[in-house]
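Holo model, GMT. Inputs:
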Amino acid sequence: MKIAIVCYPTFGGSGVVATELGIALADRGHEVHFVTYKQPVRLGLLGNKIYFHEVHVPEYPLFKYQPYELALSSKLVDTVKLHNIDLLHVHYAIPHAYAGYMAKKMLEEEGIYVPMITTLHGTDITLVGNHPFYKPAVTFSINQSDVVTSVSENLKQRTMEFFDIKKEIEVVPNFIDKSNYSLTFTDCQRSLMAKDDEKIITHISNFRKVKRIPDVIEIFDRIQKEIPAKLVMVGEGPEKENAERLCEEKGLVDKVIFLGNSNEIDRILCFSDLFLLPSESESFGLAALEAMINKVPVISSNAGGIPEVNEHGITGFLSDIGDVADMAHNALRILKDEDTLEQFKQNAVASAERFDIKKVLPLYEALYEKAYKAR
Ligand code: GMT
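Output:
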């Protein structure tokens, strides 16, 4: 099939999932066209069967806000016509499903029917889309999609609660391509980060409020009071400065390393002993899954879809949101004993196999077929 994928090209989970999906679809022989404002960060070299079409929004001084949806829907119309696209797969409802719907309607005027799959990722439903300001547009574009998928059962339930949804929502979980992860690095640079006797705790996110960064630091503070440890913080975002300040106040500057954004998180996870994800809200928790495939147990909150990924007492532990004492206690249960740590590491990687791309990709392909046949 010829598939146009619309996504955010940044470090956010939805963009990562959309990019990895496109790459995997191309490997399976589909032709994939990414349509977005910048080449997605994980896309790397464009290769056989993968194309990127940049949405350019001309700056016009008359407009206070430049109309991205308009530019995107026009670009979609052009791309569909020029490359004979069979279907649109839009990731993140706002504004992609809305722009996709407009493109569909414009194409229909010319006798071209292209089905649209919308994948809901979380914040488009739980934080942004739920705002009364966006709600009618989000409800409309979900209901107008030919197929709607959500990345977890929890997100499906929340979407049904928050919006007046008339469409069936199919749960297609996020996935991981094990073949992309080299689990044995010959150059795993643990010694650059920590001394031999120190445990390495890692957190990866976009440092937004919803990630509860102060909890990450508080949990680590409690851990390092009991055992030698370092904290590696990966990512960029609005809460990063506060986090650095908090580390200074707590006297942790020498023990916390801020690495910024990284395209090679497996090179960081390869030396990590534990991953922290105490989020306020999380539709899935792709970062936890990426940790698990790299043999890193997870200490997390029980928010949203995280319990569908992190198995309590098996791949790590779940605690109530904000219960940093319990999270620190659980972290120490894993870290204090080498045999326990090794068992959790093995469990983490085994459990991550549930989300292997080989199992998940056919689910998307079946939905594409269904939507294409019904057009
Ligand atoms: O979590 C973020 O801050 C980024 C956000 C996004 O929209 O890219 O991630 C959401 O989608 C990911 C991929 O499906 C999920 O793994 C994340 O759990 C979800 N984030 C939230 O629900 C807060």
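Residues 12-14, 17, 92, 121-123, 126, 151, 174, 206, 208, 210, 281-286 surround GMT (CB under 6 Å). The mean pLDDT is 94.
Archived with the compound record.
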